[in-house]
Each structure stands twice: as structure tokens, then as C-alpha cells.
Amino acid sequence: MAYEQWNAVDRYITDVLVPGDSALDAAMASIEEARLPPISVSAPLGKLLHILALAVGARRVLEVGTLGGYSTIWLARALPPDGHLVTLELDPRHAEVATANIARAGLSDVVEVRLGRAIDTLPVLAEEGYGPFDLVFIDADKPSNADYFEWALRLGRVGTTIVVDNVVRNGKVADPDCDDADVEGVRGLNALIATEPRVVATAIQTVGSKGYDGFALAQVVAD
Ligand code: SAH
Ligand code: DHB
Ligand code: MG
Fold this sequence. Notes:
This protein has 223 residues and is α/β, with parallel strands linked by helices. 43% of the residues lie in helices and 20% in strands. The chain contains eight helices and seven strands; from the N terminus they run αααβαβαβαβαβαββ.
């Protein structure tokens, strides 16, 4: 079965290029122990987020969907000491696990976990003068993808990079018979992006330990 091979190659890539370290390994172990859903980004995808943050010279990062803080740690590690990452999480238990993992990674001064529905927190961030964010990672409830993307534009600037996780969903995005709410959320996002003149965007399919999925990558190019 193809999945076995994707998983083996993901393990190989991770062993060779993305070796674990105590904070990331402890974060993943704590996520498993707390029985949070096993939907953190894979290690290679986490490292891609880290590299993207380095590539854009990110100082301010917004993450929508924290879970146990695994992707948060990858992103926050790319920030300078005076950088800031704010990550939005609905579930208090997830936020608690994430806060402990972020502390263990020595990133408490850089990372702020905000509890609540992201759609409620985002306008608060705007009111409080947050932004402009250099990089936005959208990885929460999929039906809200387009709303979060619009907020990323509002809280961004020309040059902001936006990454959206889980846009392929085992290929379901291209199955006209699939009307799953999460898949419709991805299609809604793509429809928005397609008519949004302020961004250039693409989407990339991925295979690996998390199965067959993908991410969208967009860059804000105009006001
Ligand atoms: N980015 C994480 C995974 C996030 S999983 C990682 O890769 O490590 C998606 C998270 O979004 C879950 O923790 C879920 O509780 C949270 N979530 C779901 N709906 C939300 C909402 N409306 N507002 C904020 N967070 C939400
Ligand atoms: C799901 C959510 C995710 O963010 C992910 O990376 C994988 C799966 C889900 O809700 O099924
Ligand atoms: Mg995801």
C-alpha cells in the first residue's frame, strides 16, 4: 500500500534531515499522552514552516489553530529574540498542553497563546494594534478557512506570506461528489483566492506520515 512507503520515506527524511530534539520530542509525546488528535504537522512540514519563517525574515507570526503547540514551536524558533508569535486556540485543554510545551521549549517570551474562537479573537488583535504579520499559518477549523484568510489580509501587509494547511484532504477537494464541510471550506478558500487580486497563490500536494494532503501558499503582492 502506498501509505506504507510514504510513511517509511517520511521517517527516513526525518531521521536524516529533521532529527528530533528534546523539546519537539517532548511536545509530541505530551500531545499523544494527553490524547489530543494526532493532527499536528509532520516533522518535515514543521521544518518547512520554520524555513519559510526564516526565508521571509519573520518577526511577527500569526497562527490560527495551536493544538499542542508543535507547529508553534517550529515557527517560533525561527524568530529573533524580540520576535512575537500569537497563536489562536479554541480548546482550553489544547491551549494548556501547548502552553506547557512552549514553556519547555524556552519560547514563553516569544509566544502568546490566545484562547477562544479565532473568529472572535482576530478582531480583538486588530483592535489591539497587532500586526502587520510577516507570516500567517492557518490550520484550524476548515470551514472557516476563507474567513481566516481574509483576516490574514487585514492583519498583513504587502509581502506577507500565508500558509494554509490541509487543502487536499486525501484528494477529496477534486471529487465533485464530496460535499464534506471541511472540503467545502477548502473550495471556499480557493474561490476567494482565485478572485483576490492582492495575492499570488498556489497549492502543493503532500504525502507522508499524515497521509495524502497538501498546503496552500500565498503571498500578498498589493494593497
Ligand atoms: N497547528 C497545529 C495543529 C492544529 S489542529 C500543529 O500542526 O501542531 C487544529 C486546532 O484548531 C485544534 O487544536 C482545534 O481545537 C483548533 N480549533 C478548531 N476550531 C477553532 C476555532 N474556531 N478557533 C480557534 N481554534 C480552533
Ligand atoms: C485534520 C486537521 C488538521 O489540521 C490536520 O493537519 C489533519 C487533519 C482534521 O480535522 O481531520
Ligand atoms: Mg493541519
